[in-house]
Design brief:
This protein is an all-alpha fold. The protein is about 65% helix and about 0% strand. It folds into two domains: about 50 residues; about 45 residues.
Length: about 110
């Protein structure tokens, strides 16, 4: 989301020429990303309902998702690179910067 926001700021500053259709596509993609993120958050916050115990219903707000380690992120990037995905798609899927994906790509090619 941060990478997409940075790109949209760059775009809004007039540093990139885009057609009206490109603007619409970007807005649609951003809306889809936000909806997916919301769905993931809702799924993470849900717990199984136990009708015999009312305290067991509703969202759980005290549980935080564990952030992947750097090694785990790099392994995920390398796996998606091996499948032939472009940097921007990998960045979008993993929620990281395309610059990070490019750095891992260059590192893998050099090593």
């Amino acid at each position: 989301m941060r990478a997409r926001g940075a790109w949209l700021s760059h775009w809004a500053d007039g540093e990139a020429e885009q057609s009206r259709d490109d603007h619409r596509a970007a807005v649609a993609t951003l809306r889809a990303d936000i909806e997916r993120m919301g769905q993931r958050l809702r799924e993470r916050d849900e717990i199984p309902s136990d009708s015999s115990n009312p305290s067991q219903t509703g969202p759980v707000h005290s549980v935080q998702a564990r952030r992947p380690t750097r090694a785990e992120r790099h392994a995920a990037i390398r796996a998606l690179l091996a499948q032939g995905h472009p940097d921007r798609e990998i960045a979008r899927r993993l929620g990281i910067s395309p610059t990070t994906v490019g750095a891992v790509r260059r590192s893998a090619q050099a090593g």
